[in-house]
Each structure stands twice: as structure tokens, then as C-alpha cells.
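Worked example 3. Consider a protein that binds pyridoxal-5'-phosphate.
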Amino acid sequence: MSRTPDDIDPALALAASGSSLTIDLGAVAENYRRIAKEAGAAQTAACVKADAYGLGMEKVAPVLAEAGCADFFVAEPLEGVQLRALLPQARIYVLDGFFPGAGPLYADHKLVPVLATRAQIEDWLAFTQSAGKLPAGLHLDTGINRLGLEKDEAGWLLANEAARRALDVDLVMSHLACAEEPESEMNKRQLERFAAFRAAFPKARASLCNTAGVFLGPDYHFDLVRPGIGLYGGNPMHEHRESPFKPVVYASGRILQVRHLEAGETVGYGATFTAPGPMRIATIAVGYGDGFFRRVGDQKPQAEVVICGRRVPLAGRVSMDLITADVSALPKDLPKVGDMAEILGARVSIDHLATAAGTIGYEVLTRLGNRYHRTYKPAVSGHPAPHGAAAPAPLAQQSSGDET
Ligand SMILES: *Cc1c(COP(=O)(O)O)cnc(C)c1O
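Given these inputs, the predicted complex is written out as C-alpha cells:
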């Protein structure tokens, strides 16, 4: 989905944008293959809910299908309808389950609900009684206590021969609460509960793992793994371990002004930053209106962006359209107005920004928003992108500076 009006010439649109977002579809495909390799004999699905974590399902899903992905997970049925238009052949699972009243939509677009409550099972059975038998998944809650059959609901189903016969169970799944903590006792407990339940549905495929779960080892893989964040370049281990994935998102903001401050002058709303001495501040056309977290401006140490090849700290609060960075450490004539500051990319990971904002990479991605000028770097089908391929240069050429 293009966020810039279609009738504007692309070069002009780029020249008219304060910020730029490049999504590397080749990296998405590479990350998919990385997970598929880790998953061994299990099949690898893809979670493309929330517009593929904000990156654009329309662009991302076909690339994943091309990389070999046959099974997709969305959260809501309307996301499934959107996906069906892109991928006529894919298996599409709806994680929120069955919304009564929306039955025809599931049937017409071949959406497979992952039934998560007894009420959903009953509503689905009522619907399929008239519409005809259709495949469905079952979601057992094994300890996250969020969504999925509760213990007594699972017991009801296991004891209810008629309901089980009426269902065409195609997938049995559960979701791990602590997959990014390999040593957590929760993982083993959830694994045991899941294994016991899935044994009652030997013909259905079984699925337990999100991205982090895949790295818990083969005991956890079952028939199908369903990663999301790793495909999009997030580190599933957060800060615990180095990420096995390639960055996908490159965001940058145009430097609008370079200001010269004297000691004692302050920066931004609330005058929260005071210049300790003479310094230079670069004002960048990105703000919380672009999903940049406002609270980052009040954190110590301050989050960093990369300007002229060097990491520099922010100074002062984040506003809706602007952030300000301390560029005093750069050579005197740098940066230049019009240079681009790297907000996210190979040197500033989504996990770096997430940590500074007290959140996770998932939220960084889903908040990116519509204002960035979006470019999709196409995946070259059949040819993995060369390792360490550089980020596509966004707007004007960056001035050269010291690499740190
Ligand atoms: C979003 C989601 C996933 C994918 O999780 P990641 O941590 O992004 O890999 C898997 N399973 C369920 C049930 C989900 O909601």
C-alpha cells in the first residue's frame, strides 16, 4: 500500500518527504529461510497480522509465499479477506477464532478459524451445520491465560464425541508465554500440556512455536512453526542474545536545521535539556507522529541515531514532527541541512529503539505509521540478497563522516 498519493511523481514525492522508510523484502525472504532451516522437518508458516507487523501485508505476503511459505496467520477475519485477495492458494488461519455472524466470510474466502473457546466451537458447529463441514483449528491455552480453550473447555471437547466428529480439525495449536527465556520453567510445562492435548487429534497438524520458540529446539517444533517478528528483522531474544536475523526496516529523517547553542540554553518542550557548553543541535523531521516514542526523549541515557556515519544521542523531548540530536561531536561542517539521519537500520536496530523506549521491537514496527515515504526493495526471487548488502540510500546522499 503506497502511503503517498499515486498521482505524485515518485521522485517528487521523495523530494517532498521529511522522512523515508525502506523495507528490504529480500531480507524478509532470507529471514524466512533462516527460520525454516532452524525448524528442520517442521513446516514454517508466517504471521502477517496487523498489516505484517506494520510493514505492509500486500508487499510482504507474496514475498513469503515465493520463499516457500504456504500457511499464514492473521488475527482478524477481515485481514484474512485482504490476504486471500493476494494469495489464492495459501492456507489462512484466523487467530482470533470465529466471529459469529461473519460465517459467510470465512466460507467464501476459505479462512480457517482457530477456535479458542467453547462458545466459538459451538457457534462454528452451528454455522457449518448449514454451510457444510469446513476445516478449523483449535487453540488450547497451556498457561499464558490470554486466548485459548481453558482446561474445563478442553475437557468438555475431549469428552464430547459428537462435537469432535462434527469438527474437521486441521490444526491444533498453543502459544508460549516465555519462549524468549529458554531457561524458563513455563516452556516445559506448556510443552507437556500441549503434547497431551494434541495426542487426541492425531490427524491434525500441531503448532506451538513463535519465532523465539523455534530456537528452543526440535521438541518444540511439532508440525508447523508460526514466526512473525524474526521475519521482520526483530531479535526474538530481545537483548539476551545477538539476533540471528537481517534487518528489514531502514528509516531515516531529513535534517532540517543545524542550530548553534551557548552554554545554559535549553532544547525542546519543557526545556528538559540544558546545553553544558557551546554545542550544535540537528533538528530532524521525524517525531512521535511517525511512531518515534515520545518517552525516549526523557530517558537517560538518550537513544541514539546515526548521522554522517556516527552514533549521536538525542537531546531534549520528542515532538510530533521533530526530534533533536546532539551533533557537537561531528566535524565542524557536518551534518549538512538535507542530510538524512538514520533512525532505524543496520546500525540502529529496532531493538535498540525499543529498549530505549521501554518496549519491544514489535511495537516499534507496528507504530511506524503512514508518513514516511515508503520504498520497498524488491526480493530477487531465487537469489538470496548478498550477505551484508548495504541499506538502500534513502534521499540525498549522506555526507561522509567518521565511522564509529
Ligand atoms: C503473533 C503471534 C505469533 C508470532 O509471534 P512472534 O513472536 O512475532 O514470532 C505466533 N503465535 C501467535 C498465537 C501469535 O499471536
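Take a moment to read the result before moving on. The two ends are 36 Å apart (CA to CA). The chain has a mean pLDDT of 92.
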